[in-house]
Write a structure and sequence with these properties.
Order of helices and strands: EEEEHEHEHE
CATH superfamily: Gcn5-related N-acetyltransferase (GNAT)
Strand order of the largest sheet: 1-2-3-4-5-7-6
Bound molecules: coenzyme A
Structural class: alpha+beta
Number of helices: 3
């Protein structure tokens, strides 16, 4: 089983880009010195939730519990930092992502067919032939 690693001080700034605010974090799963999986978390201070994002496991290492270990790390981080819930959105078509989040305890909160991916123009052709379903999940940790 790989080791899940985060930065030395998980709640401090230091991860570049959109995840550099306090309360956000990024973890990698490392096996034999190689990164085989990633996950990130971003804080939403306005409703005290933590968003799980960028979950991905190297296709050669799937089905071994790596995503579950990464997901648990995010949940652990949320509990330690007193977030009220962990939320996520996904456009994943394959069943694996949905099963993963359900197995971690997330509840499916609904789906929307009107999601616009970055770069989409919403032309007639796109609206007719390219619909993306966006699913929202939530794991409530405590009542606010
Ligand atoms: C989704 C993904 C992260 C799962 O990674 P993984 O390391 O293979 O998942 P795990 O081995 O930890 O499995 C965790 C749970 O997911 C489910 N699962 C994983 N692969 C599955 C598959 N092929 N079919 C059905 N369920 C699957 C199982 O419920 C499993 O729990 P269980 O072992 O208790 O039954 C991986 O397939 C992936 O990177 N996919 C492409 C990127 C992606 O879709 N990311 C999610 C975007 S929101």
């Amino acid at each position: 089983m790989p080791e899940v690693q985060g930065p030395p001080q998980p709640s401090s700034p230091g991860v570049p880009g959109r995840l550099s605010s306090a309360g956000s974090c990024f973890w990698v799963a490392v096996l034999d010195g190689n990164v085989v999986g990633i996950v990130a978390a971003r804080a939403h201070e306005e409703d005290n939730t933590l968003e799980l994002l960028r979950m991905s496991v190297d296709s050669r290492f799937r089905g071994k519990g790596i995503a579950k270990a990464l997901g648990r790390k995010v949940l652990e981080f949320a509990v330690v930092h007193n977030y009220s819930a962990v939320v996520l959105g996904t456009t994943a078509v394959k069943v694996a992502a949905h099963k993963l989040y359900e197995s971690l305890g997330f509840r499916h909160m609904g789906a929307s067919d009107h999601y616009v991916l970055p770069g989409m123009t919403l032309s007639l052709a796109e609206r007719l032939f390219f619909q993306v379903r966006y699913h929202r999940y939530r794991l409530q940790l405590r009542e606010e």
